[in-house]
Amino acid sequence: MSKTVSIIITLGLVAGIGIIFVGDFKKDNTNIESAQSVEIKDGVQYITINARGGYFPRITEAKNGIPTKLIMKTNGTYDCSASLVIRSIGYQQILPQTGETEIDLGTPKSGEPLRGVCSMGMYSFIINFS
Amino acid sequence: MTTYTFHVTGTHCASCKILIEDILNEQDFIKKLRVDLKEETVEIETDSNQSAEEIANVLTNKLKPNGYALSVEKITQEKINDSVTWEAILLGLVFLILFFILQKSGILNLGIGGKITPVTSFIIGLIASVSSCLAIVGGLVLSLSAKISQDEVSDTKTFLLFHTGRLVSFALLGGILGLIGDAIGISFTFSAILGLVASIVMLLLGLNLVGVFAKNKIALPSGIFQKVFSVFRRIEHKTFTPLVIGFGTFFLPCGFTQSMQVAAISSGSFVSGLLIMFTFALGTLPMLAFLSFGSASFAHGKHALLFFKSAGVVVIGLSIFALLAGLAGLGIINPLFSV
User: Fold this and answer.
1) Do B112 and A94 touch (CB under 8 A)?
2) How do residues B319-338 score in pLDDT, each as one tens digit?
3) ipTM for the complex?
4) Which burial class, exposed, middle or buried, applies to A61 when counting CB atoms under 10 A from its CB (0-12, 13-18, 19+)?
5) What is the CATH number of domain A26-129?
6) CA–CA separation, B204 vs B316, rounded Å?
7) Size of interface A-B (CB pairs under 8 A)
8) Which residues in chain A touch residue B124, judged by CB atoms under 8 angstroms apart?
């Protein structure tokens, strides 16, 4: 195979990997779920995030200044997303394979987003408070 | 008295000169000796009646345990190297893309509900072995296997020891988890740091397989890399090393392994914890065995050079992925991507 052809294909493949990483194939889903994932009941804000093969929605917009609870939903989750780490509140737990886990977030302040990652670091989610 | 000049391969460090001289000076028939690392030649004066080829063979047998070889003809790798490198980069990248597409596709996220039995944990092991855990556990197995096969140590025995070590330690530790019912060693930070170390080792081995260091070996005479590699060279020949690495894979960061460890903890007895972790490890075995024994058969085949370089590219890609993810997991950098 000629060197030039190889170099061109290589550059193409590198670009392909970039698209796989940066591109978000599930964008549409995220927006729909994001609308339903925040709920205020009896003065408490509940944010629901599904954990299985990643965290959904990846980005959540929530209100600041009211008591907030995070609900992690798992359903037959064995992959990395079951082992959740939220550094800012010192949370490290392996979620049950199936069930709901409630995490108290206190009263979040504006401009301090909450970021959760799985223990290996390849799945993450973020909640913006405003 | 005759003078012969041989070409030497496998010299990767400045201290190789001393090592080669030490070994060759032990040979009675060599009267005078000069090692030139830059030209990669060894010049000897001898009173032996053997032909140059015979002497090269005899001396190569002495040097082989340390990874050097002498030859009468210069082994011309330089010319083919260039085109092979590009082919290897292509092959490696194609493999990486397929791997990440598989992760992104969500095929591997099938839910398995209900109680964990040895059968389900076997299936979870099968899934785990092609999941993102492959980036770290599989990458480590591939890089070590290719490196060992390249050095032509008795690779089959080493691989058998590794897989035995892995199966036995998963079973035993699983049993212990079931017995104590408490999280020993499942510290996220500990396993994340272990994962970082593993990915750095993979990165170095990957670069070595591609041949980045081979070209600069004179430029880095006593660098830290050489020290690291000479330590590897020494420990990878020992019997217990593959056993210990097999044991260590229990603690490597892998979401599936961690879930199974929790399942073993809540199983409540030695036997059930043992069964869960053992069948899980058994499920990961086909893929990992394929990686190690596959590298061995490629390494001794016709396309060995292409295989080593492609494996190097794959390992580098996986290690960068694991490294960035690991740093994000520790909260040192923001997550750059989400697979």
Assistant:
1) no
2) 888 888 888 878 777 776 65
3) 0.71
4) middle
5) 2.60.40.420
6) 8
7) 148
8) 78
